[in-house]
């Protein structure tokens, strides 16, 4: 059974025009309810405005039930998940799956194709080889990495939408949803909020991916602070989000150091090695699935490649890039790749 934390609410006073004679009762003021729930290796936080504690509690429970359901679908840590079933069987022949899982795989394939392989969910065994699956970092031999090329590569996953099947052309492939799964879960949960007619809410998946639905009372959107990398985490930028998502990929939080060199947990599937020279990337995009995937795309690609990818496949997206030494508390490059207009306040690079 879920262990609920105390629900915290903040009363918001609304301005009300003077009442005329026999006017209808004024609506109850909106309150901010905050609930948290552990899932997908992090903590999800829901900020929700409602006039009714009962409505807020019911919506929060539905949201976290949905997150748990998506985790059971996509987890590569649970042998009972649908993704684990595919990993175990798709190398031997076509595996029939449900429409939702096929949708997840098609969206993953889309971003792999759009980025020419910079994004790739077939890195399961590669992540294990580098010790990132259980966070016990190691450096694999070059010969080991060469052997892993046979079981890495998005083009080795064949989808048949008509038959609703997935098949691996090379036995031994392992899918890892880490670069897109939280975004997929957030989008599913936001659909629950919309169905419940919630007009102002923000869902955060451990702060790595957030989606802002509507806006708080009397605001144009949700004000989100983008912190810089560890150890300082000083503010890099302040963004106003409304009906859009923000995702960040950060090398400073998950890494290991051997021989005085720091290795990032974000892989370049094309080189089979951790990305070098990048510290943090944040991406704003219309959906959480897209922002989650694109934060990894932009982290792996060069800024020039990222501009081309965003222009071609995500013209409404914006990207913040912090480059430099992942072991230092400063950045050498900080800029937004921006298309059109966006409520972004850039601040500084001195971390």
From TrEMBL:
Catalytic activity: L-threonyl-[protein] + FAD = FMN-L-threonyl-[protein] + AMP + H(+)
Cofactor stoichiometry and binding remark: Magnesium. Can also use manganese.
Protein name, as recorded: FAD:protein FMN transferase
Stored Pfam families: ApbE
Phylogenetic lineage: Bacteria, Pseudomonadati, Acidobacteriota, Terriglobia, Terriglobales
Signal sequence, start to end: 1-22
Cofactor: Mg(2+); Mn(2+)
Residues the record lists as binding Mg(2+): 179, 292
Sample GO molecular function, one term: transferase activity
């Amino acid at each position: 059974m879920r262990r609920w934390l105390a629900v915290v609410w903040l009363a918001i006073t609304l301005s009300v025009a003077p009442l005329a004679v026999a006017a209808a009762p004024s609506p109850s003021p909106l309150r901010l309810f905050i609930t948290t729930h552990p899932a997908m290796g992090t903590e999800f936080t829901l900020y929700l405005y409602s006039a009714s504690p009962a409505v807020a509690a019911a919506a929060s429970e539905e949201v976290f039930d949905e997150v748990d359901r998506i985790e059971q679908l996509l987890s590569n840590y649970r042998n009972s998940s649908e993704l684990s079933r595919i990993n175990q069987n798709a190398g031997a022949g076509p595996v029939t799956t449900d429409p939702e899982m096929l949708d997840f795989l098609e969206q993953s394939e889309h971003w792999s194709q759009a980025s020419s392989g910079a994004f790739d969910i077939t890195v399961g065994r590669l992540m294990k080889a580098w010790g990132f699956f259980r966070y016990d970092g190691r450096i694999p031999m070059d010969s080991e990495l060469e052997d892993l090329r046979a079981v890495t590569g998005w083009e080795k996953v064949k989808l048949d939408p008509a038959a609703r099947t997935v098949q691996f052309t090379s036995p031994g492939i392992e899918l890892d949803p880490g670069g897109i799964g939280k975004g997929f879960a957030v989008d599913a949960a936001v659909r629950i909020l919309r169905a419940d007619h919630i007009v102002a809410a923000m869902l955060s998946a451990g702060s790595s991916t957030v989606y802002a639905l509507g806006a708080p009372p009397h605001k144009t959107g949700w004000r989100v602070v983008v912190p810089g990398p560890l150890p300082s985490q000083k503010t890099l930028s302040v963004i106003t989000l409304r009906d859009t998502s923000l995702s960040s990929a950060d090398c400073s939080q998950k890494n290991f150091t051997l021989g005085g060199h720091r290795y990032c947990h974000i892989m370049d599937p094309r080189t089979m090695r951790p990305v070098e020279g990048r510290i943090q990337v944040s991406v704003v995009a219309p959906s959480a699935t897209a922002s989650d995937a694109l934060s990894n795309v932009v982290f792996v690609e060069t800024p020039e490649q990222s501009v081309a990818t965003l222009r071609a496949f995500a013209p409404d997206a914006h990207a913040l890039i912090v480059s430099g030494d992942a072991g230092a508390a400063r950045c050498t490059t900080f800029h937004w790749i921006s298309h059109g207009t966006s409520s972004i306040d850039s601040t500084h690079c001195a971390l």
